[in-house]
Every structure is written in C-alpha cells, then in structure tokens.
C-alpha cells in the first residue's frame, strides 16, 4: 500500500522563515515528492500552536494521512507535541517524523538559497524515512530500584544527588578505595535510602563491611 504522507513546514516566526524560503519549500515538497506519497504539503507561522496542530489533525482525517512529516525545530523540543496531535487525530504517534530545519539549517546558515535547498534535502530524507516507520505501542516493564555506581569520582558525587536518591531504594558504590563521596550527605531526604560501599580490592572488604550504612 502506498503511504499517504503530509508535510508541514513551520515558519517559527522569523527563526526559520528569516533564512529559509518556507513557502517555496512547502510547494516543492508537494510537487516533487508526490511520487513518494506526499498528498498534502503546507506551511504555517507556528506549527506547534494549537491552530497549527489542528491543521495537521484536520488533514489526517480529511486526506486519510498514514504518515506525517513536520519540518520545524528540534525533536527534543516539540516531538511529543506533534506526536500527541497525531494521536488525538487517530494516527499512531510513532508515524510522525520531525525534521529539524531550525537548528540544522536556519541557525547555521546565512545564505538563503543554500539554506532553502538544504531544507528541501532534509525534508526529502524525512519523507523517505517516515515511510519505513512502524506503528508502535509503549511498553511498561518493571525496573529494579537499586542503583550501582562504578567509581568514586564524578559518578560517585552525582549518586548523592537528591534525584537519584529519590529514585533508588539503595545506592551501591564500587570503587578501588574510599573517597570523599563516601561520607553521609546532609541532603539525604530519609534514612530508608541506604548507601552501601562495595570495594573491589579485598583489603577494603572489612572496611566496607563495617560501613554498610552511613546513616
């Protein structure tokens, strides 16, 4: 079955549109990538806005889209936004692909013509990639609450952070010798978090055995 792909190019105000000719990119994608399954291609001022998301959702239902490509900012920033928009429209969220034309194009180029051509190439790559995406479902698996920290340097210092202490039932250290990080942290939220020291050298075994809990 030929996929029905929608391409959406974001202006991001002037962050992208100031360097990339987004209207030209959108028109090009609709015409030149039609043979790859693109049935609709649009550009919008702020695609991540509620109106931009509604535009994508409307097209998913109206055109029966099976894949979506959003050319905008970094996936780190708005991938979840567009995946949720697709999910609300009945499309599996993992069939949405983001192409970062802000961080990888408009913010690293000053030549508008070259930036526009690069944006086209990246969108073409996104369209080719999304065709191979598969519908996925999130899984929940049990996680052991203990944490093993190898070394007494930066990792050992980080293991005393509040976030790790809250997430772990017990924190185990494995190091060659005692270090500055083996003493009790005054920020420990509760005695139930027991920090145990396990040293790899045999000569430290007795030392560790007598200090299984610094509380």
Structural commentary:
The protein contains eight helices and seven strands, in the order E-H-E-H-E-H-E-H-H-E-H-H-E-E-H. It has 215 residues and is an alpha/beta fold. It has two domains: 5-130, Lumazine/riboflavin synthase (Rossmann fold, 3-Layer(aba) Sandwich), CATH 3.40.50.960; 147-209, no CATH class. The strands form two sheets. It has a four-stranded parallel sheet, sandwiched between helices. A three-stranded parallel sheet has the order 5-6-7. The relative contact order is 0.12. Mean pLDDT is 83; it is low at 180-205.
What are the key terms here?
single chain; 215 residues; alpha/beta; Rossmann fold; 2 domains; 3-stranded parallel β-sheet; 8 helices; 37% helix; globular
Summarize the structure.
With 215 residues, the chain is of the alpha/beta class. The protein is 37% helix and 19% strand.
Question: Number of domains in the coordinates?
Answer: 2
CATH topology annotation of the largest domain: Rossmann fold
Which structural class fits the helix and strand makeup? Answer: alpha/beta
In order across it, which strands form the biggest sheet? 2-1-3-4
Distance between the termini: 63 Å
Listing every helix as H and every strand as E from the N terminus to the C terminus, the arrangement reads EHEHEHEHHEHHEEH
Can you name the CATH architecture of the largest domain? Answer: 3-Layer(aba) Sandwich
By DSSP (H or I, 4+ residues per run), the number of helices equals: 8
Query: What best-fitting shape do the alpha-carbon axes yield?
Result: globular
Helicity level, as a percent range?
Answer: 25-40%
Radius of gyration: 25 Å
Please mark out the parts with pLDDT under 50 across 5 or more consecutive residues, or reply none. 180-205
The CATH class of the largest domain turns out to be Alpha Beta
Q: Average pLDDT, to the nearest integer? A: 83
Largest sheet: 4 strands, parallel
Number of E-type strands: 7
Q: What's the name of the CATH homologous superfamily of the largest domain?
A: Lumazine/riboflavin synthase
Proportion of beta-strand residues: 15-25%
């Amino acid at each position: 079955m030929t996929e029905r792909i929608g391409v959406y190019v974001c202006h991001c105000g002037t962050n992208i549109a100031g360097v990339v000719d987004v209207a030209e990119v959108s028109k090009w994608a609709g015409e030149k990538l039609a043979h790859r399954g693109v049935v609709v291609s649009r550009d919008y001022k702020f695609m991540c806005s509620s109106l931009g998301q509604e535009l994508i959702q409307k097209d998913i239902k109206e055109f029966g889209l099976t894949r979506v490509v959003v050319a905008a900012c970094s996936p780190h920033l708005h991938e979840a936004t567009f995946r949720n928009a697709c999910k609300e429209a009945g499309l599996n969220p993992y069939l949405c692909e983001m192409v970062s034309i802000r961080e990888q194009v408009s913010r690293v180029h000053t030549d508008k013509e070259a930036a526009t051509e690069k944006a086209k190439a990246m969108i073409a790559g996104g369209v080719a990639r999304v065709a191979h995406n598969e519908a996925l479902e999130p899984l929940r698996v049990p996680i052991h609450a203990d944490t093993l920290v190898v070394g007494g340097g930066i990792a050992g210092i980080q293991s005393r952070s509040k976030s790790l202490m809250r997430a772990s039932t017990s924190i185990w250290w494995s190091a060659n010798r005692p270090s500055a990080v083996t003493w009790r942290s005054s920020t420990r939220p509760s005695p139930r978090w027991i920090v145990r020291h396990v040293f790899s050298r045999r000569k430290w075994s007795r030392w560790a055995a007598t200090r299984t809990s610094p509380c």
